[in-house]
């Protein structure tokens, strides 16, 4: 039987759902024996309003391992978006001349003062997010893990920042997210006082915790010096 070019196109289109069912081939970003990956924070500027753009960026660049920020995890799971105002940043890049390299972004300025209306909007958004979080379960995060797997990306770590103001149930929320994602550990920007609270919860969940280092070497409550990591 003779197969036309149009027939081949139809066969190719029909095979796309089948390929998706088996998942994409894992992206190999190991060079010279060293695994190269990135934290999703590196793609923060393209994550809103479409968090799926993060996955597309990993595939386009060829990165096969990810450290997933918890807010990006929630966004990929369908969490209600938080307002973007009040966040410091340098704004968009100035346009570059044709053929010239991209111009650097302006330096980030101080955090702008929020208006009463913006404060009210942020409060309402936080309440909406809290209500959404109460509906999440293991399946919520497994769905996010599948998005990475189907894109050929190994989801290695969850970055869940834990602040002193958090309740124990807030910490549990992050560890439950990590377990459902199937990552090997949690990374966090936190304090030494919080580390004492995190340790027993990490032991209970049998998950490793890695602390992001900071440059506040004059603050003994920060993971900023070698002494911070002494038992």
Can you give a write-up of this model?
The chain is α/β, with parallel strands linked by helices. The chain has one domain: TIM Barrel (Alpha-Beta Barrel). It is built from seven helices and seven strands. The strands form two sheets. The chain has a five-stranded parallel sheet. β6, α7 and β7 form a beta-alpha-beta unit. α5 crosses α6 and α6 packs across α7. The longest helix has 18 residues. It is globular, with a radius of gyration of 21 Å. 20% of the residues are buried. The N terminus is likely disordered.
Offer a quick outline of the entry.
By secondary structure, the protein is of the alpha/beta class. It is 41% helix and 11% strand. It has one domain (25-83, 112-229): Divalent-metal-dependent TIM barrel enzymes (TIM Barrel).
Strands of the largest sheet, in order across it? 3-4-5-6-7
Note the total helix count: 7
Main sheet summary: 5 strands, parallel
How many extended strands? 7
**Any guess at the CATH architecture?**
Alpha-Beta Barrel
Number of domains: 1
Which characteristics define this entry?
231 residues, alpha/beta, TIM Barrel, five-stranded parallel β-sheet, two-stranded antiparallel sheet, disordered N terminus
List the SSEs and their pairings.
Layout: H1 5-22, E1 30-31, E2 34-35, E3 38-39, H2 52-61, E4 65-69, H3 70-76, H4 116-133, H5 138-150, E5 154-159, H6 168-181, E6 185-188, H7 192-205, E7 208-211
Parallel strand pairs: 3-4, 4-5, 5-6, 6-7
Antiparallel strand pairs: 1-2
